[in-house]
Amino acid sequence: MVDQLSPLEPVWRPGSHGNFAAGVGVILSETQPGSIVQATAWPGEEKALMGAIRTVAGIVLPDGAGGGVFTEEKAAFGFAPGKFLVVDQAEGLFATLSAAITSETGTVTDLSHGRTAIRFAGPKAEWVLAKFFAIDFSLAAFPVGAGRSTVHHDIFAQIQRTGASQFDLYVFRSFARAFWNALCHASEEVGYEVR
Amino acid sequence: MSPRRSQTGGRVDRTRTIRFTFDGRPFTGHAGDTLASALLANGVTLFGRSFKYHRPRGVLTAGVDEPNALVTVLHGEVREPNIPATMLEIYDGLTVVSQNRFPTLAFDFGAANQLGGKLLGAGFYYKTFMGPVFGPLKGTRFWMFCEYFIRRAAGLGRAGIARDPARYERMNAFCDVLVVGSGPAGLVAAKATADNGARVILAELEPKFGGSANWSDETIDGMAAAEWASTMVRDLKARDNVRLLPRTTVWGYYDDNNMAALERVTDHKSAPGKGEPRHRHWSIWAGSVVLATGAFERPLVFPGNDRPGVMLASAAERYANEFGILPGQKVALFVNNDAAYRAASTLRKAGAEITAIVDARDEISAAAQEIAEGAGGELLRGHAVVATEGGKHVSGIKVQKFDLANGALSGEARHLDADCLLVSGGWSPVIHLASQAGLKPEWNETLQAFLPPKPTQNWVGAGAFNGRFTTAEALAEGVAAGLSAAGSIGRAEYAPEVEAPVLDPHPAPVFEIRAKGKAFVDLQHDVTADDVRLAYKEGFVSVEHLKRYTTLGMATDQGKTSNVPGIAIMADAQGRPISDVGTTRFRPPFAPVSLGALAAERYGEVKPERLTPMHDWHVENGATMYAAGLWHRPAIYGLAGETVEQAYVREAKTTREAAGIVDVSTLGKIAVQGPDAADFLDRVYTNMFSTLAVGKARYGLMLREDGIALDDGTTWRLGNDDFLMTTTTANAGKVMQHLEYLLDVVWPELKVQLTSVTDQWAGAAIAGPKAREILASCVTGTAVDNDTLPFMGIVHGEIAGAPVMICRLSFSGEMAFEVYSGAGHGVHVWEALIEAGKPYGMVCYGLEALGTMRIEKGHVTGAEIDGRTTARDLGLDWMLSKKKPFVGSMMMDREGLADVDRVRLVGVIALDNRPLNGGAHIVEDNEAAPRNSIGHITAVCYSPMLGKYIGLALVKGGKKRHGARAFVSDPLRNRFGPVEIVSNHFFDPEGKRMHG
Amino acid sequence: MLINCPYCGPRDLSEFSYQGDGNRTRPDPASTDQAEWNAYVYDRTNIAGDHNEIWQHAGGCRAHLRLTRNTLTHKITSVSFARDERHKKPHGHRRSGAHS
Question: Using CA atoms, how far apart are residues B186 and A71, in angstroms rounded to an integer?
């Protein structure tokens, strides 16, 4: 199998940057999942779809808008009515989910190449992300596991909180480099590390 | 005598010396100084020249309300004008110049404007420069003549043209309660809300929290007020539910408690920290807001009230107590209220001599009387200041007896010595934000002030903002406001005690002393009391009109010191009470905001780049990139020494002769999935898709609801319920939104899911007579012969180990294939195709050659689908199904749209063998002026196949003119000449080449 | 201005795009009544007060929402998913004689 080429490759500068003398405020990385799949349920079929995701991926989605679940290997979250992003570090999830979700339940769309996954973590993660997105990043308003759809000017982002101070951002691949550069730029003030 | 720094007192750090320059002269100050306090400490009182009359001006206030002491800060080549010296914290290396003076501040030619004072009165510009031209010295022609000189003489600071290298940022914030202002009321409000567990933001426009506590000399909770404030701030800082924002001006109150604020992050630093923005624009969504914005002291209006040395009484208190500065040695006061007497005792204590207290009132309280006696100097009740003496600084004042009842002056004018005159005309609550989120402010007769209006949004006020001018009242209200904002009904646990002199802050209704000489209302715009009366005489009755005619309150300070006196003088002229006249509505911003902060991260980088998977390959292989919307696409892959035309002609010619490859990843791609997908496509496309076989693609056209063409593209049926729609690059977003609307709002019963998959796929189109051979040499897992992959067929296979999907379709008119791979495999597949193409002489081609080949074929794109053309206009009648209704089907045949004389798609050939231009008119007569245009050119190229300059055009009558001669008329580019109108299908009209 | 998206919660105006007057009903696709189509395509009510509007949460979940928004105060008194409701309110015509 041919490896995916990251759109961030030419701008990937591992190490510490910006104002990091007193430690870095955020750590940026690309998680490069093998599978990023969108699953959509027809109205009324949400439970069936969540069941299929559980059967195939072994992860249990909680009820409620924006509900999600995260493990180091797999993650899933709702980002719109009846719509979920399901992520697996391994390849092949699109095929297995497609087989499990019939057209009576909903649809499955492969986005494994179409979205770039950026992990943004650290004590200043909320602070820097708040420069981009007009959503409340506080833990109370945005609990661990939950997903959000939002936008920074032209750049759509689906964001899952994957830790108390860790967020995974899924952005369109074609925008990924511009967004990455913007993230790095905005992180300079707090010091950042790319790893 | 001049102001000076006292040996002790104040809260500046005398151990830290800071060096700066003012008009090139070096000065020193201390940490904690503003430019105003540091210059005063050095005996400087002349800060600038005034707007119209170039009068010398000093410092009137100690804060954001400063109308006079405006300066320009230089950061290298970058200049920032009109910064109040009172708001500018000094730092090492600060470079400041004064404004509106020529050649120097002390000696200014423009001061001659004072002699022509009458000429520059209210409405000067309207009267002199507007209206019809009578003779040489009237009207707009005269204005154009005078403008240069006037612009040079009048005005404030001069903006620079150097690019600002500073960084600006936006910050979004959410909180339960935003407290605006950190005086005693704001501090306790923040504490009360924080105690209740609410998320609190406390914004203070000054560097130091505490407001009046920093200079009031009062005692709160048994501590000096300033010390109490520090304790409170420490307490708040320690909590994680409180965010403190110093140097942050909340300047706008928008819908749903969305507040705009400007944080001046590094303006007080010699150099910003790494990555630190200079300014940060805060957009704060607050559940509720506590407005504890305090009050501004008002000056009194009397002749000579603008001379340096005249200062607000509270400002003098602040300079003395906070900065350790005596604004004068021999200080006189001119007041209309008791509270201002406190300044006399403060300055006396700090070492000044109080020469006189001139009070417009006959009666004063015993407490005031006692202070006056303690301060020494003459107490002149029932008197008014009628003039100030001196040149560029006050050296004395003249007083006369004053009748409070009718404003009459009597008796001989007496001279009194003074090098500083403190004035107080009462206090105006800072209701600007409330005015943006409330009904009309209400005039209060007792306070002689406009009080906050009834809220129309979720805010609560506290303290001086509410007209509660004493610290004890402010504290009580602050706690209550904090509790109420936090939604708590609990009782306040915290009730600090205050020790302060009991002085009535309510002023007598005196605003102006009418004596001979220029008495200024708006110091920043040089509007005098006479200007206000003139405006009234000329019929300006509404306070909003008064403002615009005289420009009172329209300067950078937005009338913070002049609003109420101006309205009072207007009311007096009209013989109406102030409550009837009302006030203007305060609009955002409360104080000037840098444009950089509003542009934030968009400053310098207007748009994010959108890159295809093969972007870096293109750049490395000599492509000239072209920005098409957000996308960056190769325009040509030029060889050394080639012109653009030579490059694209070579690329197009080689493609038609052998093969060429182009990156088509930017095409919009939408996954249309679900059991009703085919039905949905039938509804939105003009042609049928339900009849399309799985594994086949079809060209489709979409109309808008009004029957105008929206977009075109091919849609591929990948499975029974699974389609891949492609759109033009430019319209991808628009088409998506159009389809989503139909599904969500019009046909929610359809089971169809739309997903943008533009970025999922890398697309490479390979075209030309050798295209099939090239593919066959590198594709595995499928054949690509005519049987396996017929025209519009789709196959799946692999190239160099990466899965690909290949559709045989053509935009160039050649035998062509679009090869789609996962975006992450894009470069891998692209390089394999390039390698496979080498033996066949395949070239890469860019947008220019792509355009050339599509023009030769007469295909339409965005230039023709321009939001005005119909399917028939574009010659696409054949795509309009008669078997089904579709979006736009009823509207497309309206009379006007069916008119045969509409502009329709044709081809044009330049008969003079010169290049054509898009946008040029087509005319029937060979004239220079584009009269009787019959249409316009939409796209042009040099056609290597025809050996001619050709174009597509939309021309009246369309086909009827085939074979006719016309002319191109392009006066902007001076291009005229004959053209022949032909069919848009220039090349291989039967399509033999692509069907092969 | 905040719009309380039923899925995403309150979000800033900048995430939404206005999709027009919500008082319109698209004629039956098979309808050949020109006046009816004309009304759907061109007629808009222009209310000073509570207005029935369609907004798309374009920068969020992308759902279309039906709002009751006061055009004078910007106060939003109801929000729901457009697809959940089939408002069949008569169309606000400006021209007399137009079919409703």
Answer: 45
- ipTM score of complex: 0.98
For chain B, how many structural domains are there in total?
7
Please give, one letter per residue, the 3-state secondary structure of chain A. CCCCCCCCHHHCCCEEECCCCCCCCEEEEECCCCEEEEEEECCCCHHHHHHHHHHHHCCCCCCCCCCEEECCCEEEEEEECCEEEEEECCCCHHHHHHHHCCCCCEEEEECCCCEEEEEEECCCHHHHHCCCCCCCCCCCCCCCCCEEEEEECCEEEEEEEEECCEEEEEEEHHHHHHHHHHHHHHHHHHCEEEC
Looking at the domain assignment, is residue C22 inside a domain? yes
Whether residues B50 and B137 share a domain: the answer is yes
- State the CATH architecture for A21-32+114-194: 2-Layer Sandwich (3.30)
CATH code for the domain of B187: 3.50.50.60
Q: Is the pLDDT of residue B475 over 70?
A: yes
Cβ of C29 and B885 within 8 Å?
A: yes
Q: To the nearest whole angstrom, how far is the Cα of A150 from the nearest Cα of chain B?
A: 13
**Structure confidence at residue B240 (pLDDT):** 94
- Which residue in C10, C37, C83 is closest to B891 by CB distance? C37
Beta bridge partners, B840, equal: none
Say how many CB pairs under 8 Å bridge A and B. Answer: 133
Express each pLDDT in B766-822 by its tens digit: 999 999 999 999 999 999 999 999 999 999 999 999 999 999 999 999 999 999 999
Q: How confident is the model at residue B860 (pLDDT cuts 50, 70, 90)?
A: very high
Place domain A35-110 in its CATH homologous superfamily.
Answer: Heterotetrameric sarcosine oxidase (3.30.70.1520)
Q: List, for residues C41-99, the tens digit of each pLDDT value.
A: 999 999 999 999 999 999 999 999 999 999 999 999 999 999 986 544 444 333 333 33
State the pTM of this model: 0.94
Residue B469 identity: F
- The vertex-B342 CA angle with B336 and B345, nearest 5°, equals 125
The answer to whether B755 faces chain A, any CB pair under 8 Å, is yes
Structure tokens belonging to residue A73 = 């290997």
Query: Looking at the structure, do residues B6 and B134 belong to the same domain, yes or no?
Result: yes
CATH for C45:
3.30.2270.10
